[in-house]
């Protein structure tokens, strides 16, 4: 049932008409997906994740991405992998349940409607996690959706 509340599609960060990366999020993680240029050996790619910053590039060149993150992450469980010409960066949210409007501070913010949809999906994901056995995939909110991070005293630690 929880998989019904997983992100249905990713969001794209487009700059100057070109896709920089795609991203999605869960209660605990923000995932970034970067298409890698062809014909570059995999061992030349690098990614550095700090609690408030991410840097991605090809060794010996100016970084492709070199930005502050929208919110702090846990560096001990954030990581990156390369597979099928995609760099997948998993950022573990420091504050579980926090709804991100973008992984990058001040860049490619979701519009208010998309941000509201993300918050609703994360709130339902929280309900699902806290109430296993119930199916919240068809649940709806009337009016404003509460913040999944702070609703009813916040997220219980696990």
TrEMBL record:
| Domain CS as annotated: residue spans | 16-104
Q: Which named protein is this?
A: CS domain-containing protein
| One GO cellular component term noted in the UniProt record for this chain | cytoplasm
**What InterPro entries has UniProt attached to this entry?**
CS_dom, HSP20-like_chaperone, NudC_fam
In terms of PANTHER family, this protein maps to: NUCLEAR MOVEMENT PROTEIN NUDC, NUDC DOMAIN-CONTAINING PROTEIN 2
Q: Name one GO biological process term.
A: protein folding
GO: which molecular function terms?
A: unfolded protein binding
Pfam name, any one = CS
């Amino acid at each position: 049932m929880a998989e019904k509340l997983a992100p249905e599609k990713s969001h794209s960060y487009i700059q100057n008409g070109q896709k920089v990366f795609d991203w999605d999020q869960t209660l605990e993680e923000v995932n970034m997906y970067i298409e890698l240029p062809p014909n570059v050996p995999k061992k030349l790619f690098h990614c550095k994740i700090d609690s408030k910053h991410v840097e991605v590039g090809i060794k010996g060149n100016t970084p492709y991405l070199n930005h502050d993150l929208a919110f702090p992450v846990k560096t001990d469980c954030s990581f990156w992998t390369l597979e099928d010409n995609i760099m997948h960066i998993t950022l573990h949210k420091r504050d579980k349940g926090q709804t991100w409007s973008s992984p990058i501070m001040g860049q490619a913010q979701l519009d208010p409607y998309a941000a509201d949809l993300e918050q609703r999906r994360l709130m339902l994901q929280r309900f699902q996690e806290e109430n296993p056995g119930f199916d919240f995939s068809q649940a709806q909110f009337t009016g404003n959706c509460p913040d999944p991070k702070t609703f009813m005293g916040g997220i219980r630690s696990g």
